[in-house]
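Quiz preparation item.
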């Protein structure tokens, strides 16, 4: 399956060594991430370090390991679908526009997110952790 991951999924995979991390590190699915998500990750970096119980170097290594298995959707690719994604998400959560745009631009099967706001739209399929396990 070709799946765009939300930043909250990426952070969950870094913070705790559990199912989310296992899925992200598996080679079963093709995971995509909008380029801008790394700046969002940097904003929360110290919080991630604290919550993970790992040191800075360990968190950086884990981010690198997970990122190596992702396909980054470049800003110029997302721009092609920005207007369509804006129409879908502007009334729900404008911060999620890049993820919808990335899914549309890459013809992804859906978005994996823990954010309930995505479920309010009906254009892009929202994929659950259980679906990725099955």
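Solution:
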């Amino acid at each position: 399956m070709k799946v765009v991951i939300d930043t909250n999924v990426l952070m969950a995979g870094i913070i705790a060594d559990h199912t989310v991390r296992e899925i992200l590190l598996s080679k079963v699915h093709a995971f995509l991430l909008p380029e801008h998500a790394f700046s969002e990750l940097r904003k929360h970096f110290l919080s991630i370090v604290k919550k993970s119980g790992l040191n800075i170097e360990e968190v950086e290594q884990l981010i690198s390991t997970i990122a190596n298995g992702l396909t980054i959707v470049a800003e110029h690719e997302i721009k092609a679908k920005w207007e369509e994604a804006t129409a879908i998400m502007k009334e729900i959560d404008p911060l999620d526009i890049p993820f919808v745009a990335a899914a549309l631009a890459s013809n992804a099967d859906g978005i994996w997110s823990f954010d309930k706001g995505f479920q309010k739209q009906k254009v892009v399929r929202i994929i659950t952790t259980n679906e990725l396990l099955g």
